[in-house]
Design goal:
This protein has 137 residues and is of the alpha/beta class. The protein has one domain: Rossmann fold, CATH 3.40.50.150. Helices cover 41% and strands 14% of the residues. It has six helices and four strands, in the order ααααβαβαββ. It has a four-stranded parallel beta sheet with strand order 3-2-1-4, with helices on one face. The longest helix has 13 residues, at 96-108. The radius of gyration is 15 Å and the shape is globular. The relative contact order is 0.18. It binds S-adenosylmethionine (SAM). The site of S-adenosylmethionine (SAM) has 18 residues, from α1, α5 and β2.
Amino acid sequence: MGFKSQIEKHYYRTALFEDILKRLKDLDVNLDNVTRKDIASVDEFHVRGAAVSKELAKTINLKKANILDVGCGIGGPCRMLSDEYSCHVTGIDLCEEFIRTATHLSELVGLSHCTKFIYGDATQLPFDENVFDVVWT
Ligand SMILES: C[S@@+](CC[C@H](N)C(=O)[O-])C[C@H]1O[C@@H](n2cnc3c(N)ncnc32)[C@H](O)[C@@H]1O
């Protein structure tokens, strides 16, 4: 099995976005008015969650930067950077279900104009050189 399939197999879950929607409904969240706060408990899946992203963001000048998030998952850090620092963020991830979910979650919380998600491999980035101000991971 190639490393791409191993990574997808490790992370893969079917119908992830639909599962998040169902859980929001179960919590009586109005699906016409979902905020980042409503999805905070699932939005960042790494050690120490959202707190560490906020700490990292404070270490550099990000205001209005054009950012690439490598291994963006379902896009929580992308949404934080676009919402709190007025950045334009492109997330790339090797798991197609995460990219689909990231795209829908940004639509759901009204951040699709400043976040974009691409299914792809960090070791073969499909971008020209010098496109981004910051690479985040
Ligand atoms: C621990 S998760 C973190 C997700 C996200 N950055 C976050 O903070 O919520 C690591 C992510 O890296 C992605 N990944 C691993 N290897 C990759 C590669 N070669 N190219 C793109 N994404 C990759 C995985 O699919 C997974 O979504």
